[in-house]
Specification:
heterodimer; A: about 240 residues; alpha/beta; Rossmann fold; 6-stranded mixed β-sheet; 5-stranded antiparallel β-sheet; about 25% strand; B: about 600 residues; alpha+beta; 6-stranded mixed β-barrel; transport (chain A); Putative ABC transporter ATP-binding protein YknY (chain A); ABC_transpr_LolD-like (chain A); hydrolase (chain A)
Chain lengths: ~240, ~600
């Protein structure tokens, strides 16, 4: 791993293509990006513009065809699977639209899992999970299986799981895509709390109102950055709270 | 510690979440391990049992029978030969009949007294040793006569109480244990012991024979011993029969000449069926294992952790099942491979080779189950694994063009088959194994019907019955496992083809056509399986048995029965799946 200093996340000429020749598809095309620590970045754009692919490349879930990805000053695009696994364990928390919880584990056990994999003792993992469940308002659902939770509750468990190893950055892919208005509001409130606590957050969303809660909005089109804006004053968490109804 | 806990949680939850699958997995590996244990046990079971019996009864290396009424001189001369370590006898014996429960069976009656000879000391297994007016029946013979201590039998017409049962290594197992026969053709029969006085009294005018047992300094130096005695003039030129312990062992081994190939070949076919079960389960698990690996990668598990977790789960199950199989095989072995009750049984700890073979089987099964998902987790994108549980669809434009002319059910069935060629191979292999075993069973019944009465009735019936029971047991086990496999394969086909078949239904295919399509997908590979399995079964039977061919009508009926069973067993899961409303299925799969 190449070590340096700089923003929490940085992409330089990041490219991801599929296929070859006439059927070549440029999902992400030479994207340059810097996300300072503590910033909430929303990535928006129409379906198929490369939002999710960009997020996966930033989190080391997918490998770029070209360009560089830097996480907390460390270059990660050339790392092997083992090193990427260690990186995901310690520095990245993922939140997905489909939650991707382990069906067979309880809410608390799902949250404990990354901590245990990172080498935490069972007691430490249990304590951390209990604290996070309390933080996301699910202390009374610790023993429930994902199938016994609502969509919003599952997503809150997924967020708690993403936070259990105190990651450098949380990457959320359409975190409210499957949720109703009330659950969306709960999740955005939680993200607001994370931002207030200085957590770097990158979320992909196609919902402009959700994007408006971020510090910064990156619009993609055909794999390239079409726009990079900061919402007007009064947006951000305030916008989210105003959007409540 | 934390990683171990995480792995244990995942394993335990997965097992609890899929108990049926876990049980099937255990069952398949247990059957395979049992078959392996039995197969290996046949190699030396009789040798081991005979060796144990020889050791327990001071069994002779050489058994000599003479019609000379007073061979005391020969015995003295024998004792002086350097290569002879000990001599037992001479014991008077004569040929008679023993009756019980309305049956009368040929037998040798040997006279003994209360002293313990240096060679051949029969081991009393129940009751006591001979006493005046009482008879001790050889244990295998007692079982055949269905008599126990306290029952009454007739010896040469005189009724006597059974005072004990015993075993001896100085004679072959029933029905080859009548060692009191003199010159001329010998007959099958059993063995009893009486007091010397009773034996001589019951023999009356019958001169009988004298039995002399010899223990050599080198038990393996039996070859040519009789000739050497004659050359040195130790024994006279008259009738003097010399039997080596190796001859007796060979006779005992002949008792399982039918069961041994049945267990070896049947065990191999059972292993094939078990592999079909395991592979079918693994195919069903693949999507789930891939997804689980992807989920673990997302939360930071590396390839090593994923592989270790999968391997641990498979190892846990296979080691447990292997232990069960070894135990079951070891306990069952005496019933299948012991030639008779006439020997000490072989129910002892499995040999190191057997344990190693079974462990190798467990490691192979665990490794095969874990390696696929582990490799995929390393090589393929986590994103794709999360998005789609890795259904590798194949495109066959030419096949699609050809099948377009077929009726709907056949069209769907053939295309389903082409999409899953591996499953077709499994279905074919399962059908072939079943057909082979059933054909062998039919060939055995055909041979039995044509066999002379001597093999079907009388003393040799014991061996024939034993072979038939073993063959039937192996066949029934195989049929049961194949039934399970057919349901399993039908079910997984129905589950994995649910979306495609539901789309077909939205386009106008009826539930009946969908059910028929799934049956076609199972039947098409079963047909060549049966076509290959039947001649293979016949060939195997001819290889180990006699060249008898069952009537064509039997074979045709068996083939039709197997195929009908495949169709019926597939139709059930197919029918269950075709009942779900199309909209619901499409929604849940989107």
């Amino acid at each position: 791993m190449t070590t340096g200093t700089g923003p929490a996340l940085r992409a330089v000429g990041l490219t991801r293509t599929y296929g070859a020749g006439e059927s070549l598809v440029r999902a992400v095309d030479h994207v340059d990006l810097e996300v300072p620590a503590g910033q909430t970045l929303a990535v928006t754009g129409p379906s198929g513009c490369g939002k999710s692919t960009l997020l996966q490349l930033l989190g080391g879930l997918d490998r770029p065809t070209g360009g560089e990805v830097w996480l907390g000053g460390d270059r990660i695009d050339h790392l092997g699977e083992r090193a990427l696994a260690r990186l995901r364990r310690r520095s990245v928390g993922f939140v997905f639209q489909a939650y991707h919880l382990m069906h067979e584990l309880s809410a608390a056990q799902n949250i404990e899992l990354p901590a245990l994999l990172a080498g935490a003792s069972p007691r430490t993992a249990r304590d951390r999970a209990a604290g996070l469940l309390d933080r996301v308002g699910l202390a009374d659902r610790a023993r429930h299986l994902p199938s016994e939770l609502s969509g919003g509750q599952r997503q809150r468990v997924a967020i708690a799981r993403a936070l259990v190893n105190d990651p450098l950055v949380v990457l959320a892919d359409e975190p409210t895509g499957n949720l109703d208005t009330a659950a969306t509001h709960d999740i955005l409130r939680l993200f607001g709390e994370l931002r207030a606590a200085g957590q770097t957050l990158v979320m992909v969303t196609h919902d402009e109102r959700v994007a408006a809660t971020a510090d910064r909005i990156l619009s993609l089109r055909d794999g390239t950055v079409a726009d990079d804006t900061r919402p007007a004053a009064g947006a951000g968490l305030g916008a989210m709270l105003a959007w409540k109804d | 510690m934390g990683q171990l806990l995480a792995a244990w949680r995942l394993i335990r939850r997965d097992l609890r979440r899929h108990p049926g699958e876990t049980l099937l997995f255990l069952l398949a590996v247990t059957v395979a391990a049992t078959a392996l244990t039995l197969g290996v046990a046949t190699d030396d079971a009789v040798t081991t049992a005979y060796a144990k019996t020889r050791a327990a009864t001071a069994g002779p290396d050489i058994l000599m029978t003479t019609t000379d009424p007073d061979p005391a001189d020969y015995v003295e001369r024998l004792r002086r030969i350097p290569e002879v370590r000990a001599v037992g006898g001479p014991f008077f014996a004569y040929d008679t009949t023993v009756g019980a429960h309305g049956r009368s069976v040929h037998a040798g009656a040997e006279g003994r007294d209360g002293t313990r000879p240096a060679v051949d000391r029969p081991l009393v297994t129940s009751g006591g040793w001979v006493r005046p007016g009482g008879v001790v029946v050889e244990r295998g013979f007692a079982r055949e006569l269905e008599v126990r201590v306290g029952d009454r039998v007739t010896v040469g017409g005189r009724e006597m109480p059974v005072v004990g049962t015993a075993i001896s290594a100085a004679t072959g197992v029933y029905p080859w244990s009548d060692r009191a026969q003199g010159p001329g053709p010998s007959d099958w029969g059993g063995m009893v012991w009486l007091t010397d006085e009773d034996a001589r009294a019951l023999a009356g005018d019958d001169p009988g024979v004298r039995l002399i047992q010899v223990k050599l300094a080198d038990p393996d130096a039996t070859d040519g011993f009789g000739d050497r005695l004659r050359e040195r003039g130790v024994v006279p030129d008259g009738w003097f029969n010399v039997l080596r312990w190796q001859n007796i062992l060979r006779t005992d081994t002949a008792m399982i000449q039918g069961t041994r190939p049945t267990l070896v070949v049947g065990g191999t076919l059972l292993a094939v069926a078990a592999i079909v079960t395991l592979t079918a389960l693994a195919v069903g698990r693949t999507a789930r294992d891939n997804r689980r690996a992807a989920l673990l990668k997302v939360v930071g598990a590396g390839p090593g952790t994923i592989t270790a977790g999968l391997l641990a789960q498979y190892l846990l199950l296979t080691v447990l099942a292997t232990a069960l199989g070894l135990t079951a095989g070891t306990l069952a072995a005496p019933h299948f491979v012991d030639p008779s009750d006439g020997l000490l049984n072989t129910a002892s700890a499995p040999a190191p080779g057997t344990v190693l073979s079974a462990l190798a089987l467990a490691a192979a099964v665990a490794g095969t189950g874990a390696i696929g998902p582990a490799l995929r987790a390393t090589r393929f994108s986590t994103v794709h694994a999360l998005a789609d549980p890795a259904h590798l669809l194949t495109h066959h434009p030419r096949l699609n063009a050809v099948t377009a002319y077929l009726p709907t059910s056949l069209l769907l069935g053939v295309r389903l088959l082409a999409r899953r060629p591996g499953r077709a191979v499994l279905a074919g292999a399962g059908a072939a194994a079943t057909a082979a075993m059933i054909t062998a069973l039919l060939a055995w019944y055909t041979a039995l019907a044509a066999a002379p009465d001597a093999l079907r009735f009388g003393p040799l019936e014991v061996r024939t019955d034993r072979t038939g029971q073993t063959l039937l047991a192996v066949t029934l086990t195989l049929v049961a496992l194949s039934t399970l496999n057919t349901v399993l394969l039908g079910w997984s086909t129905a589950v994995q083809a649910r979306r495609a078949l539901t789309i077909s239904r939205t386009l106008g295919a009826t539930p009946g056509q969908v059910v028929t399509a799934l049956c076609v997908a199972q039947l098409l590979p079963a047909v060549p399986g049966v076509a290959v399995g039947m001649p293979a079964g016949l060939g195997l039977y001819w290889l180990f048995g006699e060249t008898y061919t069952p009537p064509a009508s039997w074979l045709l009926a068996a083939a039709a029965g197997i195929l009908a069973a495949v169709a019926a067993l597939t139709a059930l899961p197919a029918w269950v799946h075709s009942r779900s409303p199309a909209a619901g299925v499409l929604h849940s799969e989107s």
